[in-house]
Amino acid sequence: MKEIVPIHLEPAQALTRLTEAQALSLALIESLLAVPSDALDDTIGQTLARLGQFCGSDRTYIFLQTRPGFMDNTHEWCRTGIAPMIDMLKDLPMTMADPWWPLFDSQGHVYIADVRDLAPDDPLRETLEGQGIRSLLAVPLREDGRMVGFMGYDSVSEVRSFLQGEIFLIQSVANIISAMLTRRRIEAEVTRARRQEDLERNRLRTTLSALPDVVLELDSDLRITAIHANDRVSTPIPPEQLVGLQLAKAFPPHVIAQANGILQVLERDGIALNRRCHIKVGDRVLWYSISAARNATQTPDGAPGYVVILHDVTERRAQMAEIERLGQIVRNTTNLVVMTDPEGRIEWVNTAFEARTGYTLAEAHGHKPGDLLQCPETDPETVARIGAARASGQPVMAELLNRTKSGERYWVEVNIQPLHDAEGTLVGFMAVQTETTQRHDYMRKLELALAAEETARNRLDAAVETMQDGFILFDADQRLVLVNRRFRALFPKMNAQVQPGASYGDVLQAGIDAGYLARKIPDPQGWIDRQAAEFSMRLRTSGTLRLGDRWLSFSQMPTPDGGRISLFSDITDFKDAERRALADRALAMDAAQDGFALISSRGTLLYANPSALRLMGIGSKEDVIGQHWLDTLRAQVPSNDFGIAARKLDRDGSWNGQMRLVRLDGQPVDVEVSAARNTDGGLLLILRDMSERLRNEAERERLRNDLALASRRADLSLLAMGLTHDFNNLLAAISGAAGLIEEDGTPTTRALAENIGAAVDQAAGLVRRLMSLGRQSPGKVPIDLRTPMRDAVTLVEAGLRPPLRLELSLPDQPVPGLADPTALMQMALNLCVNARDALLQSPAADAPGRIRLAMAPMTDADRARHFELGAPVEGRDYVRIDISDNGPGMDAQTLDAIFTPYFTTKGEQGTGLGVPIALEAVRAHDGAIGLDSAPGAGTCFTILLPVAPDGKTM
User: Fold this and answer.
1) CB burial class (10 A; 0-12, 13-18, 19+) of residue 224?
2) pLDDT tens-place string over residues 941-950
3) Do 573 and 553 form a contact (C-beta atoms < 8 A)?
4) CA distance 758 to 857
5) Which long-range contacts (CB under 8 A, 24 or more apart) does 835-838 make?
6) pLDDT tens digit sequence for 176-199
7) Is residue 953 over pLDDT 50?
8) Residue from 317, 316, 296, 292 nearest 305 by CA
9) Using CA atoms, how far apart are residues 926 and 57, in angstroms rounded to an integer?
10) What separation in angstroms does the CA of 184 have from each of 180, 190, 197, 392, 817?
């Protein structure tokens, strides 16, 4: 039999048909999987109708094996105007389809696109034409790998062609129908087996109920005189061994003890009922229910005897234990369990039901579940089907939309089973509900995702077609999926080969055959194999391609699903612009004042502009072009400087710094060098002569230092001049005291003489400190950091006039540090003098002017605050110095400029170097300085100075 190959459609048409077929198949499969067995035939009929309408067939049907060797037409759908044939096609031999069974195994289907293409003598053609069939598609139905029938699609009015993908999707639906039919058959067999099992169990229970229990007759001495038991009744001890024995010799001690208790009840009441005892027989423990009564029949000695009935309750006891365990399981299961009476009114619910619905057992008792849980959105057909099953006492499975007590909607799959007593009377129903809300949410999201995917695909197709770049897409199997018009315009010689479904290798071969790709590659097939390997390794590639007088740039990248996208852009205009830009750049570099040098990836000097040649002392570029750049520059650059620059260039790809070159005439020249790697691995060097700039900067620095030193010395001289008056007053006091000594030699005179000596010492110390301000600092030495603070305060106090006062607060213990005592004294002196001058210019209105210098250990808050200069180093100890006043404070403009050299608020009386000198002293000691001030709120400088790491007292 010749198989007709499906027609080829345009990619968009084929994709649309496959997408629609896929959506329909998913919907049909979902409905088949969700349908209960009793509604399966209706659902299969609906499935055949929807598939027939979609496929354009006139008759869609199922043939199914009904008994060995024979099959029936079990389901059928016919288009309007087509006569049904289901009633005529019954009990047909399966040999009628013998030509199809091998094709089902080998091809998975039988597809005849046009019956007229069959051989004229083919019996199948005669059969099909006799029924007016023009096209036919049949797919097998299997059960456990065995073919049990097929699903067919007949076209009568016209020829119908199927895509291969449509056939596969139809086969998927057929597989689900096979599985659901198999499931229904198995469920029916299970139901029959269960009914048979119940029948046998009831028959056995009736038989057992007719059998007597074991009856013992005892005399007054508790001797067993007779045993009545059916031969099939199991007894712990054979009856023939018990007759004539007393109970004490026949049974274990615990049984005898219980027998004595029963005897006492008999003596009192004459009867004892339902006493329990157990006897171990081998590895088993048998439980018996014992009932006893006095025997009215007199024994030969005239004493009454006893009758004992033993009922084996071992199995019943085990069953009760099992029932209890099952009850615990039902109570604790996560499924919702409901027990109702025969009319469907709730008698019991488990805790899971209470937790999910919000109804307690007390609230739900006596109500029908539907009255509590169903909502307006609940499917009425499903509700009616459940009601019909309940009315007939039949089990039923369904899926319902319910709502909780609070109104929350949720889906459940409910399995309702009838409950019968021992006589088979319906006593109620048990419903087990499994929540399926999450599955419904997932399916809803899946539907939305499929719709979004379809929309995205349409947008992608439209976007790809409007792209200015050539676009081609391959899937994970290296098959062409999509190509746009721009790609075909760029590569017109490949249009015949570039079709959906073509392999990646075939497209590359077409590019080679057309002369677009791999023109200079000696082994084209090897090149194609390497490209396919890169495809599998999901590598990104890019580059340029020259086609005649045009240039193309291309990039290839993997897609998330394992496919590959290639983009081709015409960059001919960019290439032309690039050539013009390179020419313009060469002219600009030749005219530049800075030196430019280009070095190839092999290290040879490609270009040097006149400025570069002049800096290196080279007369002509022809002398160095083509030489290795290391040979050209190594003789000019000191080896140490060259090594540092080369290592950083190799590590980072760029380097900026300064070098001193030695020209060929022996003259040194300082240059600023910038070096960077080019995209091709070469180097770009930019050289800038900085000799004149360095000389100018050095001269400016020297002048700045000289000016600062002169200003500082002028400030110190001015301070010394201001203190001269105080020294004169102090010397006058000394002179006056000396006169009194000459006039009076009493003890009082001696005390005055001691005061005179102290005043003289103080004056001498003051003079020494004034003199030290003008001397060169000895550098950093170990000191007690409190000492320069005291010295500065002493100098400032000498020039204070009431009501101004200066307060000093220092730690009791020495504060060791490595410091320049003069620099720190000048720092404190300048800041205190600035505070004094501020108070003199704007005295405090509500309080005397106050200057305070305080020293204390640094706190965590100090470490975290903002500083205008420096910051504390983690793990290092500091001391905090606060120099504050209650003066007028500073506005925002003054705060911004206070650290700027030569900025002053004192007019002609100020130099503007006091705060910068303090700033320099803090910087020289690796400290930090912060400033807090506001108009009317005074000023406070906070200084952090490192203390000696060993903590020793200086």
Assistant:
1) buried
2) 999 999 987 5
3) no
4) 34
5) 835/883, 835/884, 835/885, 835/887, 835/939, 836/796, 836/799, 836/800, 836/804, 836/806, 837/906, 837/909, 837/910, 838/885, 838/887, 838/888, 838/905, 838/939
6) 898 888 888 888 888 888 888 888
7) no
8) 296
9) 94
10) 6, 10, 19, 20, 96
Q: How many helices (H) and strands (E) does the chain have?
A: 28, 33
Which residue intervals of 56-94 are DSSP H helices?
none
In 3D space, the residue among 409, 418, 410 whose CA is nearest the CA of residue 386 turns out to be: 418
**Distance, CA of 415 to CA of 432 (rounded, Å):** 5
Average pLDDT in the 81-101 region?
87
For the segment 219-234, the average pLDDT, to the nearest whole number, is: 74
Residue 774, CA distances (Å) to 770, 785, 921 in order: 8, 21, 16
CB count, 10 Å around CB of 758? 9
More confident residue, 679 or 27: 27
Closest by CA to 692, choosing from 670, 673, 672, 665, is 670
Taking the C-alpha atoms of residue 314 and residue 285, their distance in angstroms, rounded to an integer, is: 8
User: Which DSSP string corresponds to 392-408?
Assistant: TT--EEEEEEEE-TT--
Question: If phi over 0 gives left and psi between -120 and 50 gives alpha, with beta otherwise, what is residue 863?
Answer: alpha
Calculate ∠ Cα 51-53-54, nearest 5°: 65
DSSP 212-269: --EEEEE-TT-BEEEEE--TTS--SS-HHHHTT-BHHHHS-HHHHHHHHHHHHHHHHH
For 693, the 3-state DSSP assignment is: helix
* Residues whose CB is less than 8 angstroms from the CB of residue 505 and which lie 6 or more positions away in sequence, other chains included: 478, 528, 532
Distances (CA, A) of 613 to 56, 279, 570, 639, 820: 85, 119, 40, 20, 50
Length of the chain: 954
Query: What type of residue sits at position 793?
Result: V
DSSP state of 422: T
Place of tokens 């073509």: 502
User: What DSSP element (H or E) covers 287?
Assistant: strand 284-298
| C-alpha–C-alpha distance, residues 568 and 671, integer Å | 46
In this predicted model, which residue has the larger pLDDT, 552 or 577?
552
360: tokens are 């307690």
Is residue 82 helix, strand or coil?
A: coil
Q: At what angle do helices 786-798 and 747-772 cross, to 10 degrees?
A: 110
Q: Is 61 exposed, middle or buried (0-12, 13-18, 19+ CB in 10 A)?
A: buried
Phi–psi pair at 453, nearest 5 degrees? -65, -40
Lookup: tokens for 562: 């394992």
| Location of structure tokens 């960077």 | 676
Predicted pLDDT at 530: 84
What string of H, E and C letters represents the secondary structure of 112-160?
A: ECCHHHCCCCCHHHHHHHHCCCCEEEEEEEEECCEEEEEEEEEECCCCC
**Do 218 and 306 touch, CB atoms closer than 8 A?**
yes
Q: What are the pLDDT digits (tens) for 620-644?
A: 766 677 777 666 655 455 555 556 6
pLDDT in tens, 663-711: 666 677 778 888 887 766 677 778 787 777 777 776 666 656 555 655 6
pLDDT in tens, 377-389: 899 999 999 989 8
- pTM for the full model? 0.29
What would the pLDDT profile of 129-153 be if each residue is shown by its tens digit? 877 888 999 999 998 888 899 999 9
Eight-class DSSP state of 299: P
Sheet holding 409-420, edge to edge: 346-349, 336-340, 426-435, 409-420, 396-403
Structure tokens that stand for 288 in this block: 């018996």
CB atoms within 10 A of CB 78: 20
If one compares 732 and 593, the residue with the highest pLDDT of the two is 593
What is the distance between the alpha carbons of residues 359 and 366, in angstroms, rounded to a whole number? 12
- 325-351 burial, b if ≥16 CB within 10 A, otherwise e? eeeeebeeeebbbbbbeeebebebbbb
Q: What is the mean pLDDT of the chain?
A: 79
